[in-house]
Amino acid sequence: MPVYRAPLQDYRFLMNELFEIEKQKDLPGFGELSPDLVEDVLTNAARLCEEILQPLNQSGDEEGCHYENGVVRTPKGFKEAYKAYAQGGWSGLSAPASFGGSGLPSFVTMTVAEMSQSANQAFAMYPGLSMAAYSALMGAGAPWMKEHIVPRMVSGEWTGTMCLTEPNCGTDLRLMKTRVVEQDDGTYKMNGTKIFISGGEHDLADNIIHMVIAKIPDENGAIRDDLSTVNFFMVPKYIVKEDGTPGPRNGVMCGSIEKKMGIRANATAVLNFDDAVAWRLGPKPEPAKAGEKPSSAAGMRGMFGMMNAARLGVGVQGIGVAEVAYQNALAYALERRVGHALTGPKEPDKPADLEIVHPDVRRMLLHCRSFVEGARAVAMWTTLNMAIANSNRAERETAALLADLLTPVIKAFFTDMGFEAANMAMQCYGGHGYIRDNGVEQFVRDARINQTYEGANGVQAMDLVGRKLGRKGGAAPMAYFALVGGWLDDNGADEKLALYAKPVKRGLDLLQQATLWLAQNGIANPDNAGAGAVDYLRLMGIVTVGWMWARIAKLATEKRAAHPPSSSFYEAKLVSARYWMERMIPECPMLLERIRAGGETLMAFDPMVA
Ligand SMILES: Cc1cc2nc3c(=O)[nH]c(=O)nc-3n(C[C@H](O)[C@H](O)[C@H](O)COP(=O)(O)OP(=O)(O)OC[C@H]3O[C@@H](n4cnc5c(N)ncnc54)[C@H](O)[C@@H]3O)c2cc1C
After folding, report:
1. Which of 217, 349, 457, 474 is most exposed by smallest CB count within 10 Å?
2. How far apart are CA 29 and CA 38, in angstroms?
3. What distance in angstroms lies between residue 510's CA and the mean position of ligand 1's atoms?
4. Is 167 in contact with 135 (CB distance < 8 Å)?
5. Integer Cα distance of 319 and 327 in angstroms
């Protein structure tokens, strides 16, 4: 059975040593963060994840969810685990105290999210989506929703969902068909079908608050194939009256749940809206006039905010699954005996050496570890940038640009790498990895969805290349190049750091060349941008994690010298940093070459030729 130990030492290192939490007191939510409070959160979350959530991961996968006549039952133990989760206050960790939450910044809550994703991704998605939903309601909901609904979601008494996808569209939401009609009392009646809704129906909570996008027909009763009439609504499973008293069952029913490859303990629901009572979020949109393209409704901004937060959350899922897969692969390689070390037997009295002696096994393990720790630092740094963006600091605009630029990179690169890492971890098990009882193949199956939902990774790459690079005259990539380039200017001459700074400098130069090439050739022919987008996103991901490893290496070099007797932690950091420089940065020239190949060959491909 797989095991999981929360990587608390790494969280402490990142928070206290690399990002120096005590120097961030001026940031929103950081003022109240005492060392004891942070330590309490970390150790209690670790206990919850190790002792309650992780032991249900494999059994939940085996059993899956059960569907009968619109009712969904989660696997054995999930209800009790959810109760413990809610009672522990974990559902409202980041919500403001005024809503009953703990008001912790995402710099801290990110660690809890990662731990719960490692322990049990299928479980963690129920409260994870709920948090995204109540955050949107806190932003766009009416006062009565904030008074009567949000606190019950924050406490975990109720959960929430995000309902975007329909049978004929997930990426291209212009094509959605779900529609609403306004009623005399200001509410709307919603009709349509949403599919693939995570946690869309279950038995964990008394009510489910669905956050739904749907179209308001134009004055002729027609819905258009564009986003101009799309609005954002709240649709509770059980109606809540505006004074907070409970109402009857609403017209939203679960038609079925999907049988699927992974996260089998998370109910992926088909939801049928049949004259369901819906409340619009945000101000009433101006009616769409013939021939004009109205801007999207204000409520939609709440939805985009919810999706942005969720994208970072999915990137963290990539880290979480890679961490737990790595831990198990390492444990296996330290137990399994197979062959001898290439330089001669390490344990001549035993029939074979431990699997860990083989360089290729070490390559796979270090690939996982170097990704997990580097990516975790980038994710934490991004949450810090998000906090700076909401502060009075002079660099707040730059911080906002960087967080925005890196959101698709974190979503796509970290989930691609998370899947890669889970797959490598499975390889360390040999044939035993393919056998269900050993539990490691579940990580591969679970990790796979992270690359697709919350915007397929290819679509994230198009967001980066097609929107983020050029916005505000290229302000975001310029801020990025100035930051990383500035760090290299300051540290590049230090001989002790040459092993790290030189490769990152090489990667950064190639990334700049790729950016220039896309600016020149992607605008002239958008197919060039589309053809190179995925490689460009990976290039930026590799350079960003590489830069973070260079920063960590600088710190670890200093700390190692200062604490020689207890230096193994810092030594290990330097090994992981070197791995990234030697094995990942060399991908950069290849990626640039692929980007420069452009779109011609891809567009010349004739799918009709046998
Ligand atoms: C287990 C699971 C849970 C989910 N949970 C939720 C949820 O809670 N709420 C919700 O609303 N949805 C959810 N989804 C839906 C998910 O977000 C969509 O499946 C995803 O966004 C892709 O949409 P689609 O399936 O319609 O694929 P399509 O939009 O048909 O796209 C198919 C493929 O085409 C490519 N593609 C499409 N457009 C472009 C483009 N512009 N540029 C480049 N490539 C492109 C991509 O490779 C994409 O994978 C979930 C899905 C699954 C399987």
Report:
1. 349
2. 12
3. 31
4. no
5. 12
Helix, strand, or coil (residue 482): helix
298 falls in which pLDDT band (50, 70, 90)? low
Residue carrying structure tokens 């007191």: 25
Residue 101 φ/ψ, nearest 5 degrees: -95, -175
**CA–CA distances in Å: residue 253 to residues 156, 287, 355:** 21, 30, 52
Ligand 1 centroid, distance to 529 Cα (angstroms): 21
CA distance 578 to 387: 30
Indicate which atom in ligand 1 lies nearest the CA of residue 266: 1
Task: Give 348-383 as a DSSP string.
Answer: TTSSS-BGGGSHHHHHHHHHHHHHHHHHHHHHHHHH
Q: Identify the residue whose tokens are 């640039």.
A: 592
What is the secondary structure of 122-184 as a DSSP string? HHHHHHHHHHHHHHHHHHHS-HHHHHHTHHHHHTTSEEEEEE--BTTBSS-GGG---EEEE-T
CB 86 within 8 A of CB 157: yes
Is the pLDDT assigned to residue 216 strictly greater than 80? yes
Helix (H, G, I), strand (E, B) or coil at 272: strand
**Total length of the chain:** 610
| 24 C-alpha to ligand 1 centroid (Å) | 38
Amino acid at 554: K
Residue 217 gets which letter from DSSP?
P
Task: Ligand 1 pocket test: pick from 235, 459, 460, 602 the residue with the most ligand atoms within 8 Å of its Cβ.
Answer: 459
CB 371 within 8 A of CB 12: no
Token pair recorded at residue 462: 């198009």
Helix, strand, or coil (residue 117)? helix
pTM of the predicted protein model: 0.97
Q: Which pairs from 248-251 meet CB under 8 Å and 24+ separation?
A: 250/276, 250/277, 251/190, 251/275, 251/276, 251/277
Chain-centre distance of CA 535, in angstroms? 20
Within 10 A of 245 (CB to CB), how many other CB atoms are there? Answer: 9
- Backbone φ and ψ for 404, nearest 5 degrees, come out as -65, -45
Q: Which tokens hold the place of 55?
A: 């032991």
Query: Which pair of tokens denotes residue 426?
Result: 């499975």
Residues 325-345: tens digit of each pLDDT: 999 999 999 999 999 999 999
Q: What residues are labeled active site? A: 454
Rounded to an integer, what distance in angstroms lies between the CA atom of residue 347 and that of residue 340?
9
Residue 94: count other Cβ atoms within 10 Å of its Cβ: 22
Q: Which residues line ligand 1 (CB under 6 A)?
A: 162-165, 169-172, 196-198, 260, 268, 449, 452-456, 458-459, 462
Neighbours of 520 (CB within 10 A): 10
Q: CA 403 to CA 405: how far, in whole Å?
A: 6
Strands 230-236 and 207-215: antiparallel
Cα–Cα nearest to 325, from 149, 477, 117, 499: 117
Rounded to an integer, what distance in angstroms lies between the CA atom of residue 559 and that of residue 539?
A: 30
Indicate which residue's Cα is closest to atom 25 of ligand 1: 170
Which DSSP letter does residue 373 get?
Answer: H
Q: How far is the CA of 558 from the centre of ligand 1 (A)?
A: 46
164, 165, 177, 528: residue to mutate for ligand 1 pocket, most atoms within 8 A of CB: 165
Can you tell me the distance from the alpha carbon of 458 to that of 239, in angstroms, rounded to the nearest whole number?
38
Q: Give the pLDDT mean for 318-327.
A: 98
Mean pLDDT, rounded, for 311-324: 97
Partners of 197 in beta bridges:
269
Q: Provide the pLDDT confidence category of residue 221 given band limits of 50, 70 and 90.
A: confident
